[in-house]
């Protein structure tokens, strides 16, 4: 069952929404992509195994929760927790892709 999940744009605080299934494994929302991570646009299959996160374009990708929100037009990134991103509870350097 899909559930609406909301995120804030780190640039202007516009609220965006995605329909998500089951267990959420979100790492962070940042104004920049994590090095070496594969981001897909909102309209793509972000549940696919090769997607490390979602690239939003604030106010212009159709994800704004309030259809009247203009947003700032800047990109921001939702990064998922992926296998190998933690080591005994401590975050592994996101600039190096896990093997």
From TrEMBL:
Domain DUF7969: 1-63
Pfam families from the UniProt entry: DUF7969 (PF25923)
Protein name: DUF7969 domain-containing protein
Species per Swiss-Prot/TrEMBL record: Natronomonas moolapensis (strain DSM 18674 / CECT 7526 / JCM 14361 / 8.8.11)
């Amino acid at each position: 069952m899909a559930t609406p999940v909301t995120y804030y744009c780190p640039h202007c605080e516009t609220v965006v929404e995605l329909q998500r299934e089951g267990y959420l494994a979100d790492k962070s929302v940042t104004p920049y992509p994590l090095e070496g991570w594969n981001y897909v646009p909102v309209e793509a299959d972000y549940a696919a195994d090769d997607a490390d996160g979602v690239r939003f374009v604030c106010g212009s990708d159709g994800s704004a929760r309030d259809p009247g929100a203009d947003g700032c037009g800047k990109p921001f990134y939702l990064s998922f927790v992926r296998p190998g991103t933690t080591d005994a509870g401590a975050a592994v350097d996101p600039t190096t892709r896990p093997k």
